[in-house]
Write a structure and sequence with these properties.
heterodimer, A: about 300 residues, alpha/beta, 5-stranded parallel β-sheet, 4-stranded mixed β-sheet, 9 strands, about 40% helix, about 15% strand, B: about 300 residues, TIM Barrel
């Protein structure tokens, strides 16, 4: 038994990355970032607002949180809808209570189906960023380039029509991209995406269609990861985010500004037995002297290039 | 993936003798410490688009697996530097499990570890290239590549091995001994070093750990950061007590894309503070443990195992 000789050849064994999307960079060697007001920790909340069609699509893959039982999966369809009808409004109240402006990553289908929720987001001064068409709009290698271009374009166009503003930001479902995604997003005029989780500050990626910023929206700190995947309690989630804040706060005093990204999901943290814990966390963050609640666009705007 | 080639039927791998945890040769660590503690940061590089191995997929998703890849890339941009600073603050020198291609991709990380006085051993070329299916010449080639690459980058002659992504062949141990490696981190049958059966020469099994590996803590057992910290302290306390009879080894294997996350590094720092302040630990590196064991204990332990308890 032996392997094909090419398995021991390493054509991309070279200085730097094994691709050309972005150069390697040491977070601790960069010029210190200073957020507005001299704050050290940008707390960037991104809410995922999702609509799951009752018939799931498996190409290129089925989205996390999608239907699970044999058709018709009323159990999960309605549980996800609960997030949009009820949980999201609890989150809005929690943000209002501390004066936080957040980014809401919205499936285009939400704008088409539930315009009232869009109006309320805009009225509250939150940012809307694009989050594909609906939860069947997944992206991965194998998706035809034209289909992906159309999916991105549709999501942006629908949200622009609904809000009057073309979204500056993009979040892919499950942060999953094809080889073409950064280029297609840049080509469509998207200023930043949130899919790559390799940093604690935004950084630029280079594509043939121009540069695009990446805001690393940590999946590790998301409510989906901590509560759903790792099966920890809301109280444990709060403790972990507080520990993260405490560390980043201290680090920021030596090395400059840091990003604390909180991806939250209405049908996870917006439940009655969890929302008070999250509400308390927001108040705790608000009371820190070194925190700055910021939308994705605000964080990108304050990041030196 | 296709159909994987067939492996032979083997039941006992024949790696070592059964040695009961009773009346063992008393290992005495330097300074009469009951427990040797070493930290093994895995400094890795995962390829974004590796070739397929017939026995194991690299990524669970089609390439590019953006979350899988970028999560691991976090280590070299952020996690390593944070983790290394904390280790240095409490006097822990790492023994690096190195994807040796990191010497080419990010020499800055390797140079930093070398400057801190860390030891290196090989964890393969990339953590996306597996040993499964290799013939003897191929497996020898990755060992030679490892020795040469680390020597050139750091001046260190590596003595240890942890197979890339823990992928082995039945030849691995013999080849390691033949090529001058003195210890392997691939076997999980003991809390003390011990001899490994090899065709020629001597090879020490160095206790590494799956159970208190941060990867198991966070990705298998789904622990919170504070639960993981508590786990490490319990592991330490028990092994330190047992080591009074015969010295034990505790390894803390780390991946800085996990432990270097901002919600985990604080609780982890408390573990290092605890161990450093306790005073019972010989805080050291794997190569130093292997050297001490070879010089003082290997022959006695090998003689024990040559005479089963039944006699």
């Amino acid at each position: 038994m032996s392997l094909d000789p090419s398995y021991l050849e390493y054509p991309r064994r070279r200085r730097g990355m094994d691709h050309d999307l972005y150069p390697w960079s040491n977070l601790f060697d960069r010029p210190a970032v200073s957020w507005p007001g001299g704050k050290g920790v940008a707390v960037c909340v991104v809410v995922s607002l999702e609509w799951f069609p009752l018939t799931p699509a498996d190409k290129p893959f089925r989205a996390p949180g999608h239907m699970q039982t044999p058709f018709p999966d009323y159990r999960h369809y309605t549980s996800r809808d609960y997030g949009t009808r009820i949980g999201f409004y609890r989150l809005l109240d929690a943000f209002a209570a501390v004066g936080a402006k957040v980014s809401v990553a919205v499936n285009a289908a939400i704008a088409q189906r539930y315009p009232a929720v869009i109006s309320e987001i805009i009225a509250a001064g939150h940012e809307i960023i694009a989050h594909s068409t609906d939860m069947n709009g997944t992206i991965a290698a194998g998706l035809e380039e034209e289909a992906e271009r159309a999916l991105i374009g549709t999501a942006l166009d629908v949200l622009e029509q609904a809000t009057g503003t073309r979204p500056a930001g993009w979040l892919s479902i499950a942060r999953s991209q094809s080889w073409n995604t950064p280029r297609l997003l840049a080509e469509a005029g998207v200023r930043y995406m949130c899919d790559w989780v390799n940093d604690d500050l935004p950084y630029a990626m280079r594509t043939p269609a121009g540069d695009i910023m990446n805001v690393p929206l940590s999946h590790e700190l998301s409510d989906r990861q901590i509560v759903n995947v790792l099966q920890q309690s809301a109280d444990s989630y709060v403790r972990q985010i507080q520990d993260a804040y405490t560390w980043l706060d201290r680090e920021s005093r030596t090395y400059g500004g840091r990003l604390l990204p909180l991806q939250v999901t209405p049908y996870i943290l917006g439940l009655p037995y969890r929302i008070d814990a999250f509400d308390g966390l927001l108040r705790w963050l608000k009371d820190r002297d070194n925190s700055w609640f910021a939308t994705g666009s605000e964080v990108v705007g304050a990041t030196p290039r | 993936m296709g159909t994987a080639p067939q492996n032979p039927v083997v039941n006992d791998p024949g790696l070592y003798d059964f040695r009961p945890y009773r009346d063992r040769h008393p290992i005495r660590w330097p300074g009469d410490k009951p427990i040797a503690v070493w930290i093994s940061p895995n400094l890795e590089f995962y390829e974004i688009d590796p070739p397929a191995n017939p026995f194991r997929k690299s990524w669970t998703k089609p390439h590019p697996d953006v979350v899988g890849y970028s999560h691991r890339d976090y280590a070299n941009r952020v996690g390593h530097w944070r983790m290394a600073e904390v280790m240095e603050r409490h006097g822990f020198k790492g023994t690096v499990s190195l994807s040796v291609a990191l010497c080419q991709h990010h020499p800055e990380v390797v140079e930093n570890a070398n400057a801190l006085g860390w030891e290196f051993f090989s964890h393969g070329i990339y953590n996306t290239r597996y040993t499964y299916g290799m013939d003897e010449a191929q497996e020898r080639a990755i060992m030679e590549d490892s020795i040469r690459t680390v020597q050139e980058a750091t001046g260190q002659r590596i003595r240890g091995w942890l197979a890339p992504a823990l992928t082995h062949t039945t030849r691995t141990m013999d080849l390691l001994a033949e090529m001058g490696f003195t210890y392997t981190c691939d076997l999980y049958h003991d809390d003390q070093p011990g001899p490994v059966h090899v065709a020629r020469g001597r090879l020490v099994s160095m206790p590494y750990s799956l159970e208190v590996n941060d990867h198991y803590g966070f990705a298998v057992y789904n622990m919170s950061p504070r639960e993981y910290a508590d786990t490490l302290i319990r592991q330490y306390e028990r092994l330190a007590r047992e080591g009074e009879a015969s010295g034990t080894v505790m390894c803390i294997p780390l991946h800085s894309y996990l432990i270097g996350q901002p919600h985990r590094i604080g609780p982890f720092e408390e573990v290092l503070r605890h161990i450093a302040a306790d005073g019972r630990a010989w805080i050291t590196r794997a190569g130093d443990i292997a050297e001490h064991f070879l010089a003082h204990d290997y022959d006695a332990v090998a003689a024990e195992t040559a005479h089963p308890a039944a006699e």
